[in-house]
Amino acid sequence: MDSEKLYGYKLLKDAYYGTGLFSVGRGLVRHPRESTPNYAFRKKLAYYLNYTGPIVNASVDPIFRDTIKREYKDTEKFKVFLEDVDRKGTSLQEYIRQQATLAKLYGVMYIIVNNVVEFGESVADNVKNRALPYLTAVEPHHITDWQFDEKGILIKFAYKDVIYDADRKKQTRYYIWTPTNWQVLDENGNQIKNGTHNIGRIPVVQWFGRSSKKTDILPPAEFLSIAQTNYHVYHLCSLLTQILNNQTFSVLTMPADGSTPDVTLGTNNMLLYPQESSHAPAFIAPDKGPAEVLMAQIDRLIKEMYRMSGIDSVVGVEQSKSGVAKQWDFERTNQRLADFSVQCEEAEKDIIGLYELWAKETVSYEVEYPRDFQINDVTESLSQAQQALDLGFRSDTFSAEVSKKVLEAYMPNIEPDTYDDIVSEIEEGFDEAERDRDLMKQWFEPMPGDKGDVNAEGQNAEQPGE
Question: What's the predicted TM-score (pTM) here?
Answer without folding.
Answer: 0.75
